[in-house]
Amino acid sequence: MFKNQLQELAQRSCFNLPSYACIREGPDHAPRFKATVTFNGESFESPGFYPTLRQAEHAAAEVALNELSKRGPSSSLAAKVLDETGIYKNLLQETAHRAGLKLPMYTTIRSGPGHTPTFTCTVELAGRIFTGNPGKTKKQAQKNAAMVAWSELKQREYFLCL
C-alpha cells in the first residue's frame, strides 16, 4: 500500500519515481533486508531489517510518507498532494489496525443550501473525537478530519510510534 501511495505522490507531483536501494545480510537460507527509498532528493530508511525485500521497501515507503505527512498540508507541494490523495485517512486506518484498535469512525453533517452545501466531519479514533475544517464535499470533509486527527496524534506520539 505505501509503495503505491508514494509512487502516486511522485506522479501527481511531477517528481521522479521513488528509487529503492537495499542491504542484504544473513545466511542464504534466512536473509534479512533493509531498504532505503529516495524520493524527491530525500532518502528515507526502513526502521529495521525484514525477512523479505518487499517488506523492507514497504517499510521505507511508510517512513517516507510519515515524514512527509508531518510537514503539514501547506508546507510543501508533496504534503499538499498527500492531502489530495487521502493519505491521512489511509495512515489512520493502517495505524489503528496495527495497534489493534477499532477502525476510525467518520460522521459527516451536511448543512447550507442545496446548491452550495457545506460538509463538516468528525472522526473518532482511540476514544477521541477530532473535527476537521468544513469542505465542499463529503470526501474533502473526511480528509480534513483525518488530517487533524493524524496531526494531533502524531504530535503527541500517541499510538503512532508502533
UniProtKB/TrEMBL annotation:
Q: Which CDD domains match?
A: DSRM_AtDRB-like_rpt1, DSRM_AtDRB-like_rpt2
Q: Which SUPFAM superfamilies match?
A: dsRNA-binding domain-like
Q: Does the keyword section mention Ribosomal protein?
A: no
Query: Do you know which PROSITE patterns this protein is assigned to?
Result: DS_RBD
Gene Ontology MF terms in the entry: double-stranded RNA binding
- What keywords were assigned to this record? Repeat, RNA-binding
Q: Could you name the domain of life of the organism this protein comes from?
A: Eukaryota
- The regions listed as transmembrane in this protein's record are none
Residue ranges of every copy of the DRBM domain listed in the record: 1-70, 87-155
Xref: PANTHER family: DOUBLE-STRANDED RNA-BINDING PROTEIN 2, PTHR46031
Q: What does this protein do?
A: Binds double-stranded RNA.
Q: What is this protein called?
A: DRBM domain-containing protein
